[in-house]
Amino acid sequence: MNNANLYTQLSDAIGAHGAWKLRLRMAAMKGERSDITGAAGDCHACDFGRWLDSLPADMRAQPEARETIDLHAAFHKSAGRVAQMIAQGKKDAALALLDDEFSEASSALKSAVAKWKLSASR
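^ thats the sequence. predicted structure below, dont judge the formating
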């Protein structure tokens, strides 16, 4: 994979994962109990997760990739916990998780992706 493709994939991932915060917040505020738990909590179900899974082993072993893969899983684990609170009708708990744990996981993932993008642009 060339660096331009890698950079594009990483940029697209940030946008897609940024949308989760709004989606989860809206679901909590509206009291929607739709089944978003599985989708939110599965790091292999999103486009970025499938793309990460498809990377060659040597690329996945690179430090920037490894960090991103680990933090992507943590991001989805946190999103899944928020979605689970929403599904259980625990709006306040969901919003608290969203503003704390989820925001931290999101920031960490963004930082790792930015570091990987910087490495790819060299």
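The helical segments are 3-30, 37-41, 47-54, 57-60, 63-87, 91-120.
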